Amino acid sequence: MADKKTAEQVKHDFWKKLADSPFVMLGLKDNQHSEPLTAQLDKDQVDTIYFFVAKDNRAARGGPAMVQFVSKGHDFFACISGTAKLSDEPGMIDKLWSKQVEAWFPGGKNDPNLALLRFDIGTAEMWETDISLGGKLKMLFGGTIKSDEMGEHEMVATTREGTSA
């Protein structure tokens, strides 16, 4: 069995996996369904994820929200609680703009329907599935996998790297 990862390592893995595959489901806590959005990451911001949305998008009105993430390899899962609000930070649209975003907003950075949604992370629960060889064999043959063979699970008050929470 591999050594247990620290919460710090799991948080580091989360940001790495999210940068590699920035697709999440975001929903306001208002009994409406979540919707797929592309996370925009700013390395200068801690516990913050941005999204380009249309001003008439249901998430644009903001409020308490949840983000769900599954990594590209289906080996990392996160459920993140926080608050969404439209960003009025000068320069953030320029800083986060890309050709991929431009494909969704034909009017470019000055598109009248363009808005930048800021999601401030409150708490997160993360699962990293690094199943041991013995656990994989048990899965293959229908055996029971013990918790120490499954991977890592952390509940954190911040996704900031370098903190113990």
UniProtKB/TrEMBL annotation:
Pfam families: Pyrid_ox_like. It comes from the Bacteria. Residues 12-140 form the General stress protein FMN-binding split barrel domain. InterPro entries: Stress-Dev_Protein, YdaG_split_barrel_FMN-bd. This is Pyridoxamine 5'-phosphate oxidase family protein. It comes from Stakelama flava.
